[in-house]
């Protein structure tokens, strides 16, 4: 299979695989535990040999890693059942801090009916002060025995846990296994939706409930093929909800039968009793026979039975002091002692019935004063036992908590006494005949109870069957129809919303944004672009601008910003003034021939080929726990852009920087810069399904956006680890960053943490009083959720971003809020701008997908909104207009760009043209060539030196600095006159 890695991942698959395979053959032992990282499954800590991903005997998938072993707990296999209701389990565990995932907190966890909840302490738990809850039923649980680590990924939530001791670890793993399997069993076999949607506390109907739609840990969403949010517990009358609630309507009868464990236990116990009583009958026979044989001593019972009575007495005394367990549930009534002692006692319906010896020869023993025909009903077990064994005299009587009734006491004293002679006496008083009659009676009575229970069960079973037949007739087809219906409704709503949004955008009053007079003319054109929210060149003036000419006139080098600024200024200004009077083109004008009036394309040459996505996800699933950088990725996972282009996409809303540069107030400048930093994430919302190509080492990408006034160049500067560096320059700003992405695979989600800082140099304020401002900030974490669920994959961004103006000490702290199962909120971001002395200047809030506002609601104003999506964007990998244009290559441009430019990369081009199989073949070739080049370099002992960026290391932090040579060489001698390493 051809290979391709997730972003930031190695492309040297073949090499690594052979290495691992060799190790295996030689039977090399795994590395010592000390070398192990405590990080979860991430690209730096885990690699795996696919052959090793076999199954461990204890229902988990073992993944051998370079530095340790992670095992994934297996789910219920086909045909497998797990009826056993696991018990509640609780205790302290260490939980990794949420942010920034460093350090561990001790937390109290409770696992009950597949719900894992935790609180700070037992006290908090009792008070209901919970910190979190997840349903582990459909989660991915990975364990690492050596580190006593347990990671649970339930889509929206991930718990990273650690146990204090191995013993605790083993217990938790076992319990998690059981609860998970039982939940899966319930999902598969228990068709009671009411039960499925009821977590631990049935009364808890809050929207934070992970099983309730909106709480995204919902089972509905996790079940393969199910539509997230269609399993509705209450309210909303979606067709599926109606179905489920209809089913739940007959819930009482059903749940009665479902809870048959108690009944079954009762049946089993009674059967045992019956068996024992049969034995008793036999024994009595023996006694009878024995007595008959040993004629002459008819009043003395056998030594065997005497011994038994002594034992019984001893235990009964215990019981009076409360040590003998009092049955808590029906079905536990008859103890072996009682039965063995020949003292029949039976519990039915939770009441203990003493089947007292009835004597035909001694009627005073037969009928209690209560007038019950054959049984007396003591009030408690101890009462019953003392009634039976005679708490009335001697040993234990004083300790009996429930004093037997005088009646009971009086006749009991005949049966039992603290010492054998009394027993013998009482035995003598009771005729053998009594025992025989009694035993027979007990047997027949129990038989009767059994028959009664059986017929009761049968009735209930029949009721249930007829009910489920009714439900089954609704079943699959109806549910599918219902789902289809709601899907159609959603699509319709979506279309409407899009229309409305477009109208809102069109009417948007952002044109009122005040731009200082000196800059307004200059920026008119670019602002115009941003106002329209059509974030592409469609509205630009590039038709008046010959890129090639402009570039050949352009001076080179990026180090001297002021000289560059002036030259840029002229081109930018001229563009702006030329185009300043442009009216908005109509949608028809834009879409004509698939090109807008600028000549740029508005969509890709072909829609995304239809591929069986499932195989891809299956494939990924098989690779859980492996170092994904070493796993070959099929091209079907890719979008026809690479990471260098993706970096350029961050400049889609560069107008915000233009605006910032035109402002005088440092706080307001920061507001624009912060919003720009947020806007970088906007495009990822529709892009969860595909990954960008990994650039090859030495691959470059340039993008000249004369309409936006910037030019951008990027290069893949390192392969191990993969690092992409970029540099963009405009009249108003300089932007640069190098990106290295750490990837963590949690099972159901993939987390991407870009390391390194983004830098921005903003032109001095227009009043001329200040200097350039240098800003720097970090990236937040991107997470792709629901990798394997039946539902949609979706992207989340979370973490804190700190933007610092290193020139004047202003800061802005932005929080990207992680979507949680506790709230329906997604994509939220908020932050504050502070001055150097810590005084709050501005407040920002909004969503990285929708808008950023400044101020406090309701008077807050919009700072930014993303552009509307092109029509049919979902057919084109979810690309924005800007993204659609990134890989476009016209003949003219082709003459000026180097052969290393991404736009010449054949596999990516092939995919863009909709030729999936061709892309697959080409990708394999291209990656093979890269491996060969690396091998050659290694053999020659050469170190790779990137062409356009220079590595600089200060205090262990490395950064990649643009040399500026790219533009110089482009001009002179021109790339066409240079030699380059052949990348493809
Ligand atoms: C298994 C596959 C399909 C997962 C797809 C992962 C994709 C969606 C991930 C992988 C790496 C991610 C990128 C990592 C870094 C950045 C830089 C940031 O400033 C903007 C978002 C951006 C550009 C992310 C966008 C989403 C991204 C491209």
TrEMBL record:
Please list the residue ranges that the record marks as compositionally biased, kind Low complexity.
197-213, 560-578
Keywords of this entry:
Cell membrane, Coiled coil, Cytoplasm, Endoplasmic reticulum, Lipid transport, Lipid-binding, Membrane, Phosphoprotein, Transport
Q: Which residues form the PH domain?
A: 86-181
Q: Compositional bias (Basic residues) spans?
A: 19-28, 304-317
**Extent of Gly residues compositional bias:** 214-223, 389-398
Give one GO molecular function term. Answer: sterol transfer activity
PANTHER family linked: OXYSTEROL-BINDING PROTEIN HOMOLOG 3, OXYSTEROL-BINDING PROTEIN-RELATED
The protein depicted here goes by the name Oxysterol-binding protein
């Amino acid at each position: 299979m051809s290979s391709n890695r997730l972003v930031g991942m190695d492309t040297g698959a073949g090499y690594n695989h052979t290495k691992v395979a060799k190790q295996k053959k030689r039977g090399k032992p795994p590395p010592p535990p000390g070398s192990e990282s405590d990080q979860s499954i991430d690209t730096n800590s885990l690699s795996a040999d696919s052959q090793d991903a076999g199954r461990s005997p204890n229902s988990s998938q073992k993944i051998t890693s370079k530095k340790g072993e992670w095992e994934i707990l297996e789910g219920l296999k086909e045909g497998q059942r797990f009826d056993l209701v696991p018990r509640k389990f609780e205790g302290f565990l260490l939980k990794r801090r949420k942010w920034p995932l460093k350090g561990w907190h001790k937390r109290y966890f409770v696992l009950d009916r597949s719900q894992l909840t935790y609180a700070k302490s037992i006290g908090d738990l009792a008070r209901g002060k919970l910190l979190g809850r997840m349903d582990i039923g459909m989660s991915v649980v990975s364990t690492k025995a050596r580190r006593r680590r347990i990671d649970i990924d339930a889509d929206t939530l991930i718990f990273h846990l650690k146990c204090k001791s191995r013993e605790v670890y083993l217990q938790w793993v076992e319990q998690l296994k059981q609860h998970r399997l039982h939940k899966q069993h319930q999902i598969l076999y228990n068709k009671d939706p009411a039960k499925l949607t009821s977590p631990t506390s049935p009364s808890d109907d809050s929207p934070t409930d992970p099983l309730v739609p909106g709480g995204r840990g919902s089972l509905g969403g996790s079940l393969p093929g199910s539509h997230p949010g269609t399993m509705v517990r209450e309210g909303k009358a979606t067709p599926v909800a109606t179905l489920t609630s209809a089913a739940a309507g007959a819930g009482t009868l059903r749940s009665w039968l479902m809870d048959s464990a108690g009944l079954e236990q009762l049946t089993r116990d009674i059967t045992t009793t019956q068996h024992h009583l049969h034995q008793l009958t036999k024994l009595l026979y023996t006694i009878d026979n024995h007595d008959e044989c040993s004629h002459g001593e008819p009043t003395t019972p056998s030594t065997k039975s005497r011994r038994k009575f002594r034992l019984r007495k001893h235990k009964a005394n215990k019981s009076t002091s409360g040590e003998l367990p009092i049955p808590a549930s029906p079905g536990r009534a008859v103890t072996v002692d009682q039965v063995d002692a020949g003292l029949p006692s039976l519990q039915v319906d939770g009441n203990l019935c003493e089947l007292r010896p009835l004597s035909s020869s001694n009627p005073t023993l037969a009928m209690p004063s209560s007038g019950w025909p054959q049984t007396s009903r003591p009030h408690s077990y101890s009462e019953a036992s003392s009634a039976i064994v005679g708490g009335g005299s001697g040993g234990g009587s004083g300790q009996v908590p429930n004093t037997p009734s005088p009646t009971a006491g009086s006749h009991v004293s005949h049966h039992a006494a603290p010492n054998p002679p009394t027993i013998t006496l009482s035995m003598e008083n009771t005729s053998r005949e009594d025992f025989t009659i009694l035993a027979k009676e007990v047997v027949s009575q129990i038989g009767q109870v059994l028959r009664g229970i059986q017929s009761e069960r049968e009735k209930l079973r029949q009721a249930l069957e007829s009910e489920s037949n009714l439900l089954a007739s609704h079943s699959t087809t109806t549910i599918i129809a219902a789902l289809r219906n709601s899907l159609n409704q959603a699509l319709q709503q979506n279309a409407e919303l899009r229309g409305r949004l477009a109208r809102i955008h069109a009417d948007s009053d952002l044109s009122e944004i005040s731009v200082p007079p000196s800059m307004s003319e200059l920026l008119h054109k670019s602002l115009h672009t941003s106002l329209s929210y059509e974030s592409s060149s469609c509205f630009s003036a590039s038709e008046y601008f010959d890129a090639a000419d402009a570039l050949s006139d352009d001076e080179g080098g990026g180090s001297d910003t002021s000289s560059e600024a002036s030259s840029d200024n002229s081109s930018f200004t001229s563009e702006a003034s030329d185009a300043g009077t442009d009216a908005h083109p109509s949608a028809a004008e834009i879409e004509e021939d698939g090109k807008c009036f600028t000549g740029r394309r508005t969509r890709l040459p072909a829609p995304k080929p239809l591929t069986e996505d499932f195989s891809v996800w299956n494939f990924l699933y098989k690779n859980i726990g492996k170092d994904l950088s070493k796993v070959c990725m099929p091209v079907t996972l890719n979008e026809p852009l690479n990471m260098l282009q993706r970096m350029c996409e961050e400049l889609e809303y560069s107008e915000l920087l233009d605006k910032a540069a035109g402002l005088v107030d440092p706080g307001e400048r920061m507001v624009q810069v912060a919003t720009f930093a947020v806007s970088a994430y906007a495009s990822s919302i529709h892009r969860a399904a595909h990954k960008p190509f990994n650039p090859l080492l030495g691959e470059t990408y340039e993008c000249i956006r004369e309409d936006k006034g910037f030019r951008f160049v990027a290069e893949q500067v390192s392969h191990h680890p993969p690092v992409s560096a970029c540099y963009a320059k405009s009249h108003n700003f300089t932007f640069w960053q190098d990106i290295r992405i750490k990837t963590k695979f949690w099972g159901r989600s993939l987390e991407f943490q870009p390391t390194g800082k983004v830098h921005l140099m903003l032109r001095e304020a227009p009043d001329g009083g200040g200097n350039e401002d240098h800003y720097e900030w970090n990236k937040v974490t991107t997470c792709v959720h629901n990798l394997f669920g039946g539902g949609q994959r979706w992207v989340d961004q979370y973490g804190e971003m700190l933007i610092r103006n290193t020139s004047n000490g202003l800061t802005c702290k932005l929080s990207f809020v992680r979507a949680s199962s506790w709230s329906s909120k997604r994509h939220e971001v908020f932050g504050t701008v502070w001055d150097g002395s810590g005084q709050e200047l501005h407040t920002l809030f909004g969503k990285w997908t929708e808008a950023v506002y400044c101020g406090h609601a309701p008077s807050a104003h919009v700072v930014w909104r993303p552009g509307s999506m092109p029509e049919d964007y979902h057919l084109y990998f979810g690309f924005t207009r800007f993204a659609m244009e990134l890989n476009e290559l016209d003949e003219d441009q082709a003459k000026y760009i180097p052969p290393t430019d991404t736009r010449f990369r054949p596999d990516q081009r092939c995919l863009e043209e909709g030729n999936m199989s061709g892309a697959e073949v080409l990708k394999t070739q291209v990656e093979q060539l890269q491996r060969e080049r690396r091998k050659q370099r290694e053999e020659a002992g050469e170190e790779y030196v990137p062409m356009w960026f220079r590595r600089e290391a200060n205090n262990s932090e490395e950064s990649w600095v643009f040399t500026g040579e790219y533009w110089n060489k482009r001009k002179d001698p021109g790339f066409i006159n240079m030699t380059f390493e052949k990348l493809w």
